[in-house]
Amino acid sequence: MSSPPSVSLTRFLIEEERAGHINADLRLLIEVVARACKTISIAVGKGALGGVLGDAGTPGAASINVQGEAQKKLDVLSNEILLEANAWGGHLAGLASEEMDHSQPIPDVYPRGNYLLLFDPLDGSSNIDVNISVGTIFSVLRCPDGVTHPTDEHFLQPGTAQVAAGYCTYGPSTMLVLTVGHGTHAFTLDREVGSFVLTTRGMRIPEETKEFAVNVSNQRFWEAPMQQYVGDMLAGKEGPRGKDFNMRWVASMVADVHRILTRGGIFSYPLDSKCRDKGGKLRLMYEANPMSFLVEQAGGAATTGRVRLLDVEPTGLHMRVPVFLGSKQEVETATRYHREHDAAHGQVAAA
Ligand SMILES: O=P(O)(O)OC[C@H]1O[C@](O)(COP(=O)(O)O)[C@@H](O)[C@@H]1O
Ligand SMILES: [Mg+2]
Ligand SMILES: [Mg+2]
């Protein structure tokens, strides 16, 4: 019995357009981002042979980005690949990146479109030199009507305004995970053919889980409700949660979230006293929002520990937020710990 014909990303997007879920411009935009990810995947795959490992800048003069972080060569290269690929397509009005201080309108020499693209060109940078999965994360918004040269303020739209989001993981296989607001779907790169093929239509995150992902080395800096929440999980079945939990932490958000979309779990990067003044560690616009859209479309949940992440009003392009996402019931439990603590201590829910 012959196997069903494989569905390429191109065919999948054309079917989404026929279903009225996306228009031709958004379809082309996603195709262009996917092609850029293929180019990044090749560079990542070459590793030391491609001279792409290590820090950008020169010895003694590291190249520091708007986050105050030393850029890796692959952070810079991936950013350039995405900028070049998206400049001339005619479906964008502007783009913004983790690696750039401000957004950029599409140059006047090129036709302009109605969408805004935000991306984390290389996620999991601390894992680049040690050959652990890294990725690219992207989010798509509409450009406000009548705006031809968008500036940072035009990007400041809540996560609920996203029309598409996705990530690409560069691991043992290269995978693209995508939503246009009608479920979350996974594609695997067929390296021989050079195209993404649909491998999971309609990913579903189990509502319950026994697996959590958090950088426990930050425990002493956590808020009291987070200490309690993780302490109760670590207490196992003898403890208040009545079940044993396992822990995973890859330190590449794309890899940790991909595991959760595939088999469930909860991922969190909570507020702690080290990052409190910044509002958190992870960035709302090109990390938390796209991942939350993908997770919610797969039946999961995403909060800041206090409020739904997709409802957060952005105040800056590189705004940071606490993140809890994954299996619905577990995220609700983690959020309850924070809300009950706030209520008991007369604290009003912040972001
Ligand atoms: O080093 P830590 O504290 O474990 O943090 C790891 C987190 O930081 C990140 O690497 C931040 O992203 P970038 O690599 O894009 O800066 C996430 O991918 C990951 O979840
Ligand atoms: Mg990142
Ligand atoms: Mg990054």
UniProtKB/TrEMBL annotation:
- According to its UniProt record, the EC number is 3.1.3.11
Subcellular location, record wording: Cytoplasm
Main subcellular location:
cytoplasm
Instruction: Tell me what reaction this enzyme catalyses.
Output: beta-D-fructose 1,6-bisphosphate + H2O = beta-D-fructose 6-phosphate + phosphate
Spell out the Pfam families in the cross-references: FBPase (PF00316), FBPase_C (PF18913)
May I ask which residue range the UniProt record assigns to the signal sequence?
A: none
Per its UniProt entry, which superkingdom is the organism in?
Answer: Bacteria
Known InterPro entries for this protein? FBPase_C_dom, FBPase_class-1, FBPase_N, FBPtase
Cofactor names: Mg(2+)
Residues annotated as coiled-coil are: none
Domain Fructose-1-6-bisphosphatase class I N-terminal as annotated: residue spans: 8-200
Pathway annotation from the record:
Carbohydrate biosynthesis
Q: NCBIfam families under this entry?
A: PRK09293.1-3, PRK09293.1-4
Self-association or partners: how does it assemble? Homotetramer.
Q: What is this protein's name?
A: Fructose-1,6-bisphosphatase class 1
Q: What lineage is on file?
A: Bacteria, Pseudomonadati, Pseudomonadota, Gammaproteobacteria, Lysobacterales
Q: Which gene encodes it?
A: fbp
